[in-house]
Specification:
Layout (H helix, E strand, L loop, with lengths): L1 H5 L1 H23 L9 H25 L1
Length: 65
């Protein structure tokens, strides 16, 4: 548990990158003709909100220093 708290900034960066890549994949695959991902638009919007929250946290940590 200490490791998790100690490296939360690094974990946040990895989660941000993974979520961004996931959103790009969903958007890209959904754009192919004949393939439709149900609720793709809503999924990408939720990922964007989570990315915004994580980015705000990382920026807040940078400004606090």
């Amino acid at each position: 548990m200490k490791w998790l708290l100690k490296n939360k900034k690094t974990i946040a960066k990895y989660v941000l990158n993974i979520l961004s890549a996931t959103a790009m994949l969903i958007t890209g695959i959904n754009a192919i003709e004949g393939i439709t991902i149900p609720y793709a638009h809503q999924i990408v919007e939720v990922i964007a909100v989570v990315n915004g929250v994580i980015s705000t946290y990382l920026l807040g940590q940078k400004i606090a220093k």
